[in-house]
Amino acid sequence: MTCDEARARLSALLDEALGPDERGPLEAHVATCVDCRRELGLLRNTVALLQSVNPVRAPAGFADRVLAAARPAPWYRRLQRALSLPWSAKLPLAAAAALLVGVAVAHLLEMAPELQRAARVESPSPAVTESQEPPATPTGAPGQKAKAESEPATRERREGRARDLADEATDATRRRDLAKAAPAPAPATAPERKAESAVGAAAPAREPAREGARPDAATSRRSALRTAAAADVSGRLVVTDREAAARGLTELVARTGGAEVAKSAGADAMVIELTIPRAAWSEFTRELAALGAWTPDREPAELPAQVRVALRITE
Amino acid sequence: MAGPIHATIEFRSVGNPARAVWSNLMDRRTSDDSHLVDRLRRGDARAFDELVTAYQHRVFSVALRMLRNRTEAEEVAQEVFLRVYRTVAAFRGDAKLSTWLYAIASRLCLNRLASSDRRVTREGDETLTRLASGDATPVDELERSELEATLHRAIAELPEERRIVVVLRDLEGLSYEEIAAALDLELGTVRSRLHRARMDLKEKLERFLP
Predict the structure, then answer these.
(1) What 3-state DSSP class applies to B138?
(2) Which terminus, N or C, of chain A has the lesser number of Cβ atoms within 10 Å?
(3) How close is the nearest chain B Cα to the Cα of A112, in Å?
(4) CB contact under 8 A, B60 and A48
């Protein structure tokens, strides 16, 4: 066997892949040939190096991907797989979620006292919020300087006029009511509100831009008083039957070509606001005396074409 | 270089323990293959799971050695299993299941390497370099990673028809007969290609040899 023939079979000799008829002569040659023996040693070491290579492993998740590709999973499985992320993705996501929840909770806690404060302000004090409303407030005559006045001053003035208008008993009652209403004003009752809005609706143009707080508990009464205060002529009409007097008054107004502008009834007095043409004024006062004891508080010498009258009818 | 020489002697005497364990595992699994093939033919869903689990590393390994690119290797490896899944009913069973898998993997790799657009890209050596083992001491590791890098490069530089033979024989541990069956070659052709491949490698690895 030549060295070339021997070397072509050295690899197979290492793998024990030679039949006995080949292996015998080859082993005999290698035993006597130094070069071929050295070559066999080098080849053996080369193969040993190759076999020392670490085995390769398929990437993580490879088997799952193969299975998914082979058998498209039902939708719920795919969803489950999509949701089951590796921890390397889950941990940052979980941290982000936790952070988000934390921020949200902190934000809510920050908001809570504010909300509570807001609730405290809103519920027991409708007057405050109502003051924000546009001026649906019933009001006085043109030329009244209420716009420039602050609320307390206005109130004081109204009360002053009201005292003039009302008799002692009703005045005392009203003041008691006001005192009651001042610290914790309660929302006006439904009938009172109705009356008030009737006044407002009847005379919206008279003072459209009126500002200031909306009336509270004593609302309707004071609105009536305000009306009286705005009148050209105001006075008391003491009658025996208030309702009958009111009916008579209505007829009188119709007869004299006037108009009833507003009407509000309290427990002890009824306030009616009217306009009477100046031409019919003397007839009006004459007829009024027939209805009851008419005591004008204020009656200017010069009357406008349409006389505004505020009557406080008591029994 | 004393270190690599020492290492070489050690490898020759004990071989690669990891590979030995791996081979034993595979041998045990291979013995169950006929049963697995029966179940695959019957359309047993779990059988395919077991097949993929048992062979994924070996199929991927061949693909990575041949293609030198993990993404391409995974694509090809997946295609191998999909072909098995689709054609297992027609599997004759006169070859071992593992040989059949290697045959499909080898053919797909060689086809892809032969395709014109694949010839342009020759990246991926870095990928193989990173496959070095991590259970050695730092100094050993440095020497070992140098050795591994040289090994991988040497294998990668082999002509494809020799490379597939040396991969199947020395890295995957197939017998000459199995290689001949998988690649549809004569035994003599397997032997001569393997010998030429090893001679090429011997020259390239000379500085690591005693």
Answers:
(1) helix
(2) C
(3) 54
(4) no
